[in-house]
Design goal:
Layout (H helix, E strand, L loop, with lengths): L4 H21 L6 H29 L4 H12 L11 H11 L9 H25 L7 H14 L12 H5 L14
Length: 184
C-alpha cells in the first residue's frame, strides 16, 4: 500500500515510544539476576522477531495472493513509500509477542515485546536504508543492503531476512556468489 510520508515514518516514532512505555510501566527488576532475566527475555523477543520477519516475508509476502500483490508493488517501486499502514505492525507485535505471555507475568511479556519491537525498528531502519541510503562499501550496513538488493535484483526466491541473514543461511535461502550492483 502506497503511504504518505507521514504514514511511512509514523512507526519510526511510535515504536520507540511504545518500547519506552512498556519498559517503564512493566515491573522493574529488583536484582541483578532479575535485570539479567529481563534482558534475556528481550533478546528472545528480538530473535523471535527476526524469525517472524523471515517467515512472513518468505511464506506470506511471496505466496499469499493479496500480500503478494502488495509486495510486488514494493518490488516494482523499491524506492516508493510502500508498506503497511501505521500502527498495524505495532498492534500485531503486541498481539503476538505480548498478550500470549501475560500469564507468565514478572516482566517477561513487556521484555519480549520490547525485544520484538526493537527487532521491528531495526527491520524498518535497515529496509529503509537498503532502498534510500548510499552506504560505505564494506560496512555492516552496506553488507545488509547488498543482501537485500540481491532479493530484489537477482532472485526473489532468496534473501528473505532484512534484519539478519541468519535465517536465510539456516534455511538454505541465502544467495551466494552473485555479483549485483550495490546501489540499484
Amino acid at each position: 500500500m502506497r503511504l504518505s510520508t507521514w504514514a511511512y515514518f509514523a512507526d519510526f516514532v511510535l515504536t520507540p515510544l511504545l518500547m519506552l512505555a512498556l519498559t517503564v510501566t512493566g515491573p522493574m527488576p529488583q536484582t541483578i539476576a532479575g535485570a539479567g532475566a529481563w534482558l534475556g527475555w528481550a533478546i528472545a523477543g528480538f530473535v523471535a522477531w527476526t524469525l517472524f520477519e523471515y517467515v512472513v516475508h518468505r511464506f506470506i509476502y511471496h505466496r499469499i495472493p493479496y500480500f503478494q500483490d502488495v509486495h510486488e508493488a514494493h518490488h516494482g517501486d523499491p524506492a516508493g513509500l510502500i508498506g503497511a499502514p501505521p500502527v498495524v505492525g505495532l498492534v500485531m507485535i503486541l498481539g503476538l509477542f505480548y498478550l500470549p505471555l501475560m500469564p507468565i507475568g514478572a516482566g517477561a511479556p513487556e521484555a519480549v515485546a520490547v525485544g520484538a519491537l526493537a527487532g521491528y525498528f531495526a527491520y524498518m531502519l535497515l529496509h529503509h536504508a537498503a532502498h534510500h541510503w548510499r552506504t560505505t562499501p564494506g560496512t555492516w550496513l552496506d553488507l545488509a543492503r547488498r543482501h537485500h538488493a540481491r532479493h530484489h535484483h537477482a532472485s526473489d526466491t532468496c534473501n528473505f531476512g532484512i534484519t539478519t541473514p541468519f535465517w536465510d543461511h539456516a534455511f538454505g535461502t541465502a544467495l551466494r556468489g552473485t555479483r549485483q550492483r550495490a546501489h540499484p
